Amino acid sequence: MDATKRPLRIPPQFATYAQKHELFELYRRLIARLLMEKPEDPLTFMLEELKREDDDVPAIVIQGPPASGKTTIGKMVSAKLRTAHITPQILLEDDVSPLAAKARAIIDKNQSIPMELWVQLIQARLKLFDCIKKGWVMEGFPENREQGLALQQVGISPKHFVILDAPDTVLIERQMGKRVDPQTGDVYHTTFDYPSNSEVEKRLVEPPEGCTEAEMTQRLVLYHRHIDGLRRCYHKFTKVINADQPKADVFSQVITALSSKHRSLAPHIPRIVLLGPTGCGKSVQAALLANKYDVISVSSGQLVKEAIANASKTGEAIKPYVNRDMPVPDNLVLKLIEDRLSQIDCVTRGWVLRGFPRTREQAENLDTAGYEPNRVFYLDVPNDSVYERLTLRMTDPVTGIIYHTLYNPPHSNQIKERCQRHPEDSDGAVQKRLAAYNAYVEELSDYYQTGLHINADQDPHTVFEFVESMLVSQLPTNLDRD
Predict the structure, then answer these.
(1) In sequence order, which ranges of 310-393 are alpha helices (DSSP H)?
(2) Looking at the whole model, is its pTM more than 0.85?
(3) Rounded to whole angstroms, what are the CA distances from 153 to 61, 120, 237, 302?
(4) Least confident of 26-35, 159-168, 373-382
(5) What phi-psi label fits residue 325: left (phi over 0), alpha (psi between -120 and 50 degrees) or beta?
(6) 352 pLDDT above the threshold of 70
């Protein structure tokens, strides 16, 4: 940054670095931890926090009505993510914790455990190494808004709050057939999930909370009384899953919900690359994005034409290659793109780039230059559709309007007679450009592995809806911890 020039401009690479390393979220977490912990030495505390490598561990609460499958799904999620599995029963069974012993003594007196003691039990459990290093999945707690707020006051807040929901009639039917293996704690059902092992079958007992319809109805009334307040407590990251379906489907939907990222408050500057074969509609989608989101549409081909027309130094170097119909060297094209993307409008408003990169090497050079895209879209169109789009279009030299023999034919014979077809739309030229794209599309896909594929063989505005939906949402997280 040149301190002698005004106004001072932050290099565009700074924003790329900040977004890549999530510096905004890092600052937010540090401030939140400072306000919750209130350490006497804030600087030392922040240094210790920065040394931690566990900021992105799972923190999940799974809640739902009785018999909704919380225990089963909680165990499956915990096993999948390799996290600690926490339930009120597990907390009370801790033989080492004096807090657990105190809670058991209160239960022996047929009294309810105070909310403050529950919070202390959870606090102590979450400070253990496995929760800090691997994360945690808490099932069945908090049960009401007061408990949720009490956890938040001591700095305990999940990243995902999952509610397993099902009709009351289904839940009552489930509970009436519910059986528990007291040796392992596994849950079975007399109709839907009966054990195949005869030894396990002999051990099965009814759950301690009872299986009658009256008991279940009373528990459901209590659940419905508190769940709305609890949802308001965690409304920003609550996901409701339909639990009235096979266990595998419920688990799949829960994992999908956990892989989603919450909307960040960090400033977001779009840096978009559109990839696809010739005729896939990159120019149309770039124009729609520029019009709606005020980003700058950048075309590598247009930059080359402007450089030649302006007789710039780079343009003079490019001109011989264009005149001889030879590929322009990557370093010259990249120089034009760097100059354009470093301008103040692209830095502050974002950009959508098309026509570059076309090879993996170009993509690597673009990233090395500091212009790493945060969204890459592949506009996929079959070759037959490309030929149909390009070889049948024509231009009116008088008005400049582009017509198509099938989809937008000229309105009169006079216009039709004067329309001309661009040489680049001939069968041979289109085939050549398609071959050039297909030769490198696989290596580009390998490089941009987070790129999003869209079926572009449909109405442009339908395609734009897909592009827009993927642009405004955070990219999902890979939860595979194997």
Answers:
(1) 313-323, 330-341, 344-349, 360-368, 383-391
(2) no
(3) 17, 12, 18, 56
(4) 26-35
(5) left
(6) yes
